Amino acid sequence: MTGDPIILDRIGRRYAVPGADAVCALDDVSLDIAGGTSLAITGPSGCGKSTLLGLLAGLEPPSSGRIWIGGVDIATLSDAESARLRREQLGLVFQADNLLPFLTAVENVALQVALGGGDSQPPLELLSELHLADHAHKLPDQLSGGQRQRVSIAAALVKAPRLILADEPTGSLDARSSGGVVDLLLDAQRKSGATLIVVTHDADVAARMDRVIRLHDGRLAGEAGPIAPAETGDLRV
Ligand code: ADP
Ligand code: MG
Question: Is residue 189 within 8 Å of 158, Cβ to Cβ?
């Protein structure tokens, strides 16, 4: 299985603001992402990073332009098809873990399986693979921030998504936990051949992806190739 290639063709996204000018969150962004590769999206706060992920997840449509995932123009999908695609093929990770506080780690992962859609790995087996077996039966508030985020990632990965979208997944973690979270995402991506897109402010995290792009004021402002962490000082993430 290889993750689908993604083509963004002149994407724009505007938000109407009552009583003020519309906000242009994304403006004329074109990008080709090869299937099965990893990409970091960097840029200052408010430059459109989360908006771009939301469009890729099919959570909202672009105002202009087209998005092709695996050769399919996602604007042509019905709401039901779009929801099914998200359930079966998409793994979403956010800055704050989105675990339910009254379910244990393994129950949180199992919940994703219970929601249906596609094949899945037994939750306990996955947690063991991710070195979280000792924490499987703990509630989220018995885990550290880094452990909670790794459980969230397990929940996002349990159905072997072809596309993994992570929005500042290390944003609330220290450097050591952050490294562990990126290890998990990259291991999963390499093992399953999924396409991985990570929004991050952290130059060390960005440097571990195959490609790094930068947004500024909703426009594509540059691209860096594979870079060593020590060289990221001028990346202006
Ligand atoms: P980032 O994730 O890079 O910090 P966002 O994609 O969240 O940036 O936001 C880009 C711009 O779009 C910002 O100016 C933000 O205020 C605006 N924006 C995002 N979502 C909405 C919305 N639902 N309504 C109005 N403006 C929005
Ligand atoms: Mg954001």
Answer: no
CA 131 / ligand 2 centre spacing (Å)? 29
What is residue 87's predicted lDDT score, i.e. its pLDDT? 86
What pLDDT digit, counting tens, does each position of 179-234 carry? 988 999 999 899 889 999 999 989 999 999 999 999 999 999 988 755 444 444 44
Q: Which atom of ligand 1 is nearest to the CA of 199?
A: 2
Q: What is the pLDDT of residue 237?
A: 44
Rounded to the nearest 5°, which phi and psi values hold at 114? -65, -30
Task: Give the C-alpha distances (Å, rounded to integers) separating 52 from 10, 31, 84, 89.
Answer: 12, 11, 20, 18
Distance 141 CA to ligand 1 centre (A): 30
Cα 77 to Cα 31: distance, rounded to the nearest angstrom: 21
CA 146 to centroid of ligand 2, rounded, Å: 20
Pocket of ligand 1 (CB under 6 A): 15, 17, 23, 25, 43, 45-51
Ligand 1 atom nearest the C-alpha of 51 is 6
Residue 174 has pLDDT above 80, yes or no: yes
**Percent over 70 (pLDDT), the chain:** 94
The arithmetic mean of pLDDT across residues 165-178, rounded, is 91
Q: Which atom of ligand 1 is nearest to the CA of 16?
A: 25
3-state secondary structure 153-200: HHHHHCCCCCEEEEECCCCCCCHHHHHHHHHHHHHHHHHHCCEEEEEC
